[in-house]
Structure prediction request, 379 residues.
Amino acid sequence: MEFKNKTILIISPNEWGNLYISKHHYAIELSKKGNSVFFLNPPNHNLKTKIEIIQTEYPNIKVVNYKTFFPYKIRFHLRFLYDFLMNIQIKRILKKINSKIDIVWCFDFNLFSDLKVFNADFKIYHPVDPVIYKHQILPAKTADILISVSEKILLNFKNIKTKSIFINHGIEENFKIIAENNLKIQYKNNSNKIKTGYFGNLTRPVINEKITRQIITENQNIDFYFWGPYNSENNNLGGSEREIPFIEFLKIQKNVFLQGIKSKTDLVKEIENIDVFMLIYNEDKATSDRSNSHKLIEYLSTGKVTVANQFETYIPYKDYIVMPENDDDNEIPGLFKKVISNLDFYNSPELQRKRIEYALENTYEKQIDRIEKILTEIF
Prediction:
């Protein structure tokens, strides 16, 4: 199967906005191949119209916004009725789109139980977050192919007949450029202070606050830079709107610098001088199974070492990411100190090249090529 000159409906749990993650990057890459892409946002109950279609800055991508014609809260109480009414909602959305859908590509595992209702020639179910509820399994039954970013997530579907494949997270064009450039540069720590970096949504509760606080507090001679939203303003990826004690802690630390939301173009420039990246998540059945994270592949594209909790997908790649051997987060502060004391080793040209080359093998363009090849072989 070739993803070219098709009409593709991307179903995303994260709305189109100023921050892009995997769903948005797939939409962008598919649009570059000449496909007409409709990006279906989650329901917006404040919408003034029932359904609207908006042109994005990308010529081949249009965003579809809608509000349900029924009380949305029944999703949490009467799933069978919700599914029935949502199928009617889908037909109304398709009527508004007014184009035959060749491929429906569903990243959302909560809203739609039956992908057949989209009346597409080919149906892809692509969960990238932990699957814990029965209704999150159901879309796989009506999909033609199941894709995910970790084998741990795919295990939830072991009793489903649908063919499943592992495709890792990807890097988009800006990280691809920085990776190619960094292949030519030998690492040097050009300042007296070591710089540690993290970028991501700071309002999500998955960050292991205890261990992160400990590392910051115990390493006052190191600067910690955090990029990403730390409140609800301009945050299209969701998160808490409450006052978050962890963020309040970060704000008052003299060695912490909150950089806020930056475009990917600006972000890749600003992280060039980072010496160590950090990613420490809690394990939470609903939000983080610690099997993979899209940030890891982006960190790898810089070539610099990352200190993290144990992520299952990267256990075979111990040269790339420094993780506890026994999945014990209490080991991480010690590992961090070990890494910063031996940066010439952990950021050696050889290890940097390995990380960058691995990242470059996982651009979104190449992930789509891999999926095309696999589908051609299967179908």
Q: What stands out?
A: The chain has a mean pLDDT of 93.
